[in-house]
Structures are given as structure tokens and as C-alpha cells.
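TL;DR need C-alpha cells for one chain.
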Amino acid sequence: MDGHGRRLRRPTTPRWGAWLGWGAAVALPLGFLAVFFAWPVVSLVLQGFFAETPTGRELDLSGFAEVLSQDRTWRIVGQTLAQALTGTVLSVLLGLPGAYVLYRCRFPGRTLVRGLVTVPFVLPSVVVGVAFRALFAPGGVLGWAGLEESFAGIVLALVFFNYAVVVRTVGGMWERLDPRAEQAARALGATPWRAFRTVTLPALGPAIASAAAVVFLFCATAFGVVLVLGGLRYGTIETEIWTRTTQFLDLRSAAVLSVLQLVVVGAALLVSSRARARRERALHLTSDRVSAHRLRLRDGADLAPALVTLVVVAGLLVLPMAGLVTRSLRAPDGSWGLDNYVALGTTGGRNALTVTVWEALGNSLRTAAWAALIAVVVGGLVALVVSRRPRRAGLRHAVGALDAAFMLPLGVSAVTVGFGFLITLDRPLGLDVDLRTSGALVPIAQAVVAIPLVVRTMLPVLRAIDPRLREAAATLGAAPGRVLRTVDGPLGTRSLGLAIGFAFAVSLGEFGATSFLARPDTATLPVVIYRLIGRPGAENYGMALAASVVLALLTATVMMVAERLRGDRPGGEF
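>> reply
TL;DR here they are.
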């Protein structure tokens, strides 16, 4: 009823108009996913099952038999699984104390430390590889430890990357757990460790499982880190695909290895999806209030987790980057100065590059801007649709399937995506243009990689909107479009800055797909850094260090600004 006693009516916008709008919001992302992800990946997989014959393509599994009979293949598979499992276990063990300190405790500078912890996750993999290589090399801070081109060195770099995933995912749930259950256990005589083990740890189980599954995915597909640090002794399925494609032009074997990798990451993605569903259900059972206490160091209650967190942040996160900056200031003749940075305006020793580092940086910025725009538009539409709670069971299943479909790029290697682009997008949809030489594929491939992170950043905020707000607006006469503008829009934009930051930073440092697709004259900065590492000469290596510092600072600045804009609002968990 209004003020005159008249009954308010729902808007008279035709129902088909709303359905048409939602249909377009679903069709656009699905079309993008089908053309630029499903088609290339499926075509690549089929390369392993079919062979060209004089009469056409025929089913031929001899490629599988050949690749799977090689000892090298199973050694590579074993190394991939060993590195991923070890990296996952260490990330979880070290991340739990960090989640407690940064989300359950309050202290000055906590927001700054949270942002600092997040930066390694979005740093370019090539930069991380160069930083740890400089750390472990003779003359580096840890040169005495013998970690250069070692299994332990690779695992430490993987933990550096994925520590933030555990801290943010587990910490997001931990800060909303009701502390009274643990307090009751303590009052009944339980020690702090027993109260944690019997009360808190089971409650955190879904978040820990979700974080572990995602970390395993990222460790199993860490292309740039292993390529730079592994040398000739250590590799993964991903680096083997790259080697067989770029060095031996063995597309058939590379396709078979891509199938193997899809099996591994597909299983991990299934576990991740189920664990994430359990975590979201568990979040509904926790308090909406943020529960945190002041960090207690004087009485020793929080001393152990605080010390572990301090050692990890200072020793594992800060030390490699500090070592990278220090080594970049060492000139080829052994003196200290900015010689390596001055050389960034050249093409390196013996013209190692076709563009200067500053030109490559410009290419990276332009490409990342386009990729971020595509990822935010497509990912924002997906998050908007998936955030809905339909009453019909069929629609709920469809929404769940859409959510799962757009998480697939998270588990499929960027190398597989880039390789698939090369073999499919010469004449897409019958168009008289070869996209492989147009330069458009690089931002599209980077957007494919960034879309899942955009969805995961915006979705928690959109799902947190009380549906009664939409119902009230509709009852008061607002059309569906106006409901979106006045209810979802203002609340959803809370996570927009962080989503843009993630998309831009991830695109800026993407190396896997870009290494296949970037032309020499439009090479991005990660590709240029890798080329400098592979060229002989102290001048080229010094330029690679300096260029890595530039790229790391730019990426870190983007993420710190995005994290600052978000503040303590929900969203941005993995």
C-alpha cells in the first residue's frame, strides 16, 4: 500500500524482456568461452587421438602408445605430482599460522601486511623464477645452500606463490568463526592446542580443503617458475609441452601430454569445486560478524603463530624480492649503480632483443588493459548470473554448471590454451583473417586466464546481497534493469576495483600462453625477460634482473592499490 491506501503493483515490464536480458548475459560469456577456450582445448586434445592420412583424419592411438612407453614421460609426470603435492603441503602448513595472525588478530599495519602477502600471488611467474634464481646462484644470499636447479628450490618458489591462497581462503572463514565454542573447550580444561585440534580445525576443514585443491592446481601448472628454475634436471608436463612444441615441433607428442595434463588438473578441479561448495555452505553457518582480538604477544598466547608468520613473510616473501633488487644494482663489471636500468633502453648485448625493454613494457600495458577490460566484462556477467538463487531446481543446476564451466580455465594450463590457439584460430568461423598474426590473440588468451579470478572476486559480494532488497525494489515498481542499477550496481562495485586489479596484474605477468602467441616485434615484458635469461652475457642477465624489478614493482603497485580500495570488504578470496 502507498500513502493513499492504494496497492502497489509489480512493474509491468514484459516478462520476456527480463528473460531476454538474462539470456544475453549468459550467451555472451558462453560464446566467448566456447570460441576462445573450449574449441582450442578440444582441438588440441583431438590431435592426440587422430592422425592425418591420405584419406583424411583417422583415429590413431599410436601417439599415446609411443609417448606413454617412454621413461621420460613418467619421470616428468612424477616430478609434476611430487612438486605439486610438496608445494601444497608446505603452503597449507605455513599458511595456517598466517591466516590466524592476519585474520583472527588485530595489530597496527595489518591491512598493509595483508596486501604484501597478496602481491606474490599475482607476480609474473618469470619474475619469481628470476628472483629465486638470483637468490640461489653463486654469489646470491643463499648461494651456499646448493639450491640452484634443485627440487627444494622449485618447491620454495611454489610456496612463495601460493602462500596467499591459503592465508586468504582460510583466514576469510576463520575471522567469522564464533569464538565461543573454542572458549567453552578451554573453560572445560582443554589446552590451547587441543581446543584448536578438536574444535577450530574441524570447522576450518572445508576452507583448508578448498585452499589445498586450488594450490595443487597452481603448483601443477606453474610454467614460468619451473622453466626458469628447473634447468635440464627438473620439469613438469607443462614445460615438456612447451619444449616439444617450440624446440622439436612435435605437435603430436605435445597433444598427448596435454591430454595427460588435463586428466591431472581435471581431477584436481573436481576436488576444488566440491571443496569450495563445502566452504560456501560452511560460511552460511558462521557469523556475519568479523571476530578478531588484539594480538597477544606479552602473555605468549599468539607468540608462536606470530613468529612463524614473521619468518615466512620476511624470509620467504620479502627476501627473494630484496635479493632481486640488490642484484639488479650490480653492474656487469662488479660495481654498484644503475647501469642495468640504463641498459633497458637498448636491445641488449649482441642485439639479443628485437624491441627494448621499455617498448616491451608498453606492449604489456596495452595488452593487459585490453585483457582486463574483456575479463571484467565477461567475468562480471558470469558473476551476476551465478549470484542468482533461482527457485526452480533446473535453473539452480544450470547456474551451478555455468559457474563450474568458467572455473575450467583456472585448471587448464595457459600453455595448453596458447598451443590450442595456434592450431585452431587461423581462420576462425570462416573469417578471412588469420588471428594468429593479428596481435588480438594475446589479450584474448590473457583474458581467458584472468576471467576465473574476476568471477571469484566479484561473486562473494554479489551473493552477499540480501534478495529481499531486490524484491522490495521490484514491489515498489522498479523494472528489472533499474533493480540491477540501484541494488546490484552500487553493492557490486565494491569488488570491481579489486577485480580490475587482479585481471590487470595477472594479464600483465602472463607468460604461458603469451610465449606461444606474442610476435617478436610485439613481445611483452615477461617474454623479453625470459629471452634475456636465455642469452649469454652478463649484460643480458643484468638487464633481465632490472626488467624483473620493474615488472614486479608495477604489478605490486596495481595490487596494493586494488587491495587498498577494497579495504575489509568481502570478496577476493580464491
